[in-house]
Amino acid sequence: LEQRCPRCRLPPRWCVCAAAREVRIPLRIDLVMHERERHRPSGTGGLIARVLPETRLHRWHNDSDAPPADLHAPDREAWILHPHGGPPPPGVDPARVQAVLLDGAWSESAAMARVIGPHGRLVALPMAGESRYWLRAQQEGGRFSTAEALVFLLGALGLDEAREQLRLQLELHVYAHLRARGRAEAAEQFLAASPIRVAFAEEIARLNTRRPR
Predict the structure, then answer these.
(1) What does the alpha-carbon distance between residue 47 and residue 127 come to, in Å, rounded to a whole number?
(2) pTM of the model
(3) What are phi and psi of 79, to 5 degrees?
(4) How far apart, in Å, are the Cα atoms of 124 and each of 18, 83, 111, 115?
(5) Which DSSP letter does residue 209 get?
(6) Distance CA 42, CA 198 (A)
(7) Which residue from 207, 182, 185 is spatially nearest to 196, judged by alpha carbons?
(8) What is the distance between the alpha carbons of residues 45 and 207, in angstroms, rounded to a whole number?
């Protein structure tokens, strides 16, 4: 098996842990990750768990028929992010919100929503533009990655600094995975429109330094 960094799960040549920045936010994040997602190094659920250290991670199995036992947060309102939900209510204190993120492929997330949805408020965010998650075909057609959904949520709650910090970490994650896959041309196209070109200029230069054979 190919050796990978135990934290960012990239091959050591493309490890981006040196540029990792923790993001602190007042809302509680509960990430429900499908069992298959833990084996997908490019997934953004793992990125969320790394850069938001207070994230609570729950595993989901194909035969799960109830929400995780420790998902309930009695002091907060559960917002389950899903495109079939309603708009987020205005004027909510982020410190009173529990954001439940369903992390998996499109069909997997839909199955999770059927079970978990009745236990909170299904919330759909106003997601505009095109996905910047270039690592899976499923992000086409207005579908966004789990981390992108959280970026939109932070923006909706007025947490602009945290939103930008998470966005930068996501863009670096995508760029490094494109390079690790040998998709150099796609990586350069991605980088041309990315804020990481400036924000992580030294890290980008390091990744692009040729290694001796």
Answers:
(1) 20
(2) 0.93
(3) -105, 115
(4) 34, 5, 17, 17
(5) S
(6) 23
(7) 207
(8) 23
